[in-house]
Amino acid sequence: MASVALITGASSGIGEATARALARERDMALVLVARREERLSALAGALAVPCTYVAADLTDADAPARIAEHVAREHGRLTLLVNNAGASWRARFADGGYANVRRTMELNFDAVVRLTEALLPLLRESAPSAIVNVASTAARVARPGTGAYSASKFALAGWSDALYAEEASHGVHVGLVLPGFIRTEGFPAHELTARAATRWMVAEPHTAAQAILDAGLRGSAERYVPRHYALAALARILMPGIVRRALRGGAGDVLMTSTGADAAYAASPNGSEPDDRA
Length: 278
Ligand SMILES: NC(=O)c1ccc[n+]([C@@H]2O[C@H](COP(=O)([O-])OP(=O)(O)OC[C@H]3O[C@@H](n4cnc5c(N)ncnc54)[C@H](OP(=O)(O)O)[C@@H]3O)[C@@H](O)[C@H]2O)c1
Fold this sequence. Notes:
The protein is an alpha/beta fold. It has one domain (3-267): Rossmann fold. 50% of the residues lie in helices and 16% in strands. The chain contains twelve helices and nine strands. Helix 2 links the parallel strand 2 (28-34) and strand 3 (51-55). Helix 3 packs parallel to helix 4 and helix 4 runs parallel beside helix 5 (147-167). It is globular, with a radius of gyration of 18 Å. It binds NADP nicotinamide-adenine-dinucleotide phosphate (NAP).
């Protein structure tokens, strides 16, 4: 029986690369989810596997039910859920305040939990199956200006560990992928790619896609991308004072990158629409 994988945030970056990588697997059918319908339609048409899509804002109240209904009607089963859609609006807490934390949590954490809740019955019915949550190295190490983003990804990492333990007996594996700097529309990392001294830190989306396949199809528990970013997480645990001081000073400034969500917010009329790139 065919495997059915649903990828959120499939219209660009890591999600699109994951869809392309999954389409090279045997007996695979795909469900693509994001807001930009024309991107999803074009990608679905370009992939050589059965592919449907749902254009949805994952923060909408009815999005999880709409997506679950689509998957049940069009495919009847689900063997892999890749919770990948996400964004980061950079702001220090004194400037962005609770409003920035709330919108970041709504997309990067709440929407993931809500979609997973809606699809878990089908994932259990279709077991062996898997969920892959795309967090970030920022789920282990927080930098100035990214507190809201780190809060959402720390939450996602913690929740993923608990869900793994709870769902193992139901045949639903839960994997976690923690990318470092990956060059995408949402995270272009111009500041790092512009300088020879930092260019090596930036990887391409297909590397994250391979880690997602390792977690989703081959049972990996957790993958940093690139793998050596795990050292940053280890350093944060073993030397919290040193790492905190380094990130408070020069290292924090060097690693500060602007995002696609920032650019969309700056371009939006009176700043009322935080991330409308449609
Ligand atoms: N690139 C990095 O350096 C990096 C590092 C660590 C973690 N990550 C994580 O990797 C994931 C993918 O990011 P990316 O780098 O591939 O960025 P990206 O190219 O901007 O992709 C983000 C995806 O999320 C979708 N999305 C955003 N808001 C949405 C919403 N409200 N409803 C539905 N879909 C939404 C976007 O599609 P639409 O705009 O069409 O809706 C897009 O397909 C994110 O969770 C991010 O936090 C990225």
